[in-house]
Structure of Mechanosensitive ion channel family protein:
Amino acid sequence: MDAFKSTLQEWLGELAGKENLWIAEVFIVVFCTLIVALVVSTFLNKLKKKSLATKTLWDDAFFHSLAAPAKWFVWVLGLTTAATIASKHSESAILEAIATVRHVGYIVIVTWFVTGFISKAEKNLIDPEYSRQPMDRTTAMALGKLLRISVIITAMLVALQSLGYSISGVLAFGGIGGIAVGFAAKDLLANFFGGLMVYLDRPFAVGDWIRSPDKNIEGVVEDIGWRQTRIRTFDKRPLYVPNATFTQISVENPSRMQHRRIYETVGIRYDDATKMAGIVADVKAMLVEHEAIDHNNTLIVNFNGFASSSLDFFIYCFTHTTDWIEFHEIKQDVLLKVLKIIEKHEAECAFPTSTLHVPDGIQLMQAEN
């Protein structure tokens, strides 16, 4: 190898002259960098394809995030080496900063790799293809964002140190400037800590249906960011809510309900008053026998009021299902059976009516033609 290198240098020296031999060396370094980068990229892409075929969580994340940074690592190493050779024969001030550029380049590439690995691992952790028990999406997103922020801040501090700045000075300035920034960006900080509380307390997660009795907020949570939460309303419009809002309002989470309630009032005619007891008893028996009704929860059917034009009884029970569509199918079935029970007792549902009583002493006069 040494013999080949010396022979190549002699040949290039004869072509370019001894004083310009460094130009040939730079060319060789750049050419070798191109070859090595091509080999590394090809090799890692093959490993990436093999790892994707195995559906292994960490291997997939590692090789997926390594391919591009590894290629650029080779280029940074090769180009800075070529620049170092050139700097020995040039008086350019730019070439004197090669060592600093190399260090900063390494920091950027490592940061790129680590943040990419975290992002891919985050996606794999919530994918059922990679895990029998996928991690909760909200938790995975929170951990992923926290780790990426930590890596980026650390990389920035190390890069500043490489550029000649004192980290202690930067941290001191950040402590003093943080007070001013805190006053200027209090809303941004409020939203940040609001998002943090959502991640810690977990009143809702991505995919949950939520609503607030205090605000006109209702829909399905699509994303919980550090500043705002995106909710898809039922008319398919995106609603962006600042996270600080959730620290000041009440939030209902219907997605976590265990049952759905049927609460209906049914009225029959006053003429069917003697049939009320039998109707109530049969309706209650029907609910007790209904497979979709949860008999371990409150189940009430009672006559409870004299309305203006009807005798009212109410139905109060819970279904096993919480699915919105299935619940309405069950509710429809229950109400249709109630109507059949009323018909079986030869009674009728009441509707608003008025009766006019005319005293005996009042005579109606016929109009003369």
The CA atoms of residues 293 and 319 lie 4 Å apart. The mean pLDDT is 79. DSSP finds nine helices and seven strands in the chain. The first strand starts at residue 209 and ends at 212.
